[in-house]
Design brief:
Distance between the termini: 16 Å
Shape: elongated
Largest sheet: none
Number of domains: 1
Number of helices: 3
Strand content: under 5%
Oligomer: single chain
Structural class: mainly alpha
Length: 73
């Protein structure tokens, strides 16, 4: 599934929009960590947490999109 499809569903469905916005927020936070030449132990832990959170959000978004596709909308 591509970002355009996700954005299209996010425009129609508030639950998907909220999950997508959280995902994007985590993406920005992760980008800031990746820019650093060195991560503290806490930052490394946070990086792993962010990646897991993003994965769970993405899975939830895909689940909802499939559900809405089956419902016809």
């Amino acid at each position: 599934m591509d970002k355009e499809m996700i954005k299209a569903f996010a425009e129609k469905h508030e639950d998907i929009r909220e999950l997508y916005e959280k995902h994007q927020c985590l993406e920005r936070e992760l980008e800031e960590l990746v820019k650093k030449p060195y991560l503290t132990t806490e930052e490394e832990i946070r990086e792993k947490q962010i990646k897991l959170e993003k994965l769970h959000l993405k899975e939830r978004i895909f689940y909802l999109i499939k559900k809405y596709q089956k419902e016809g909308g």
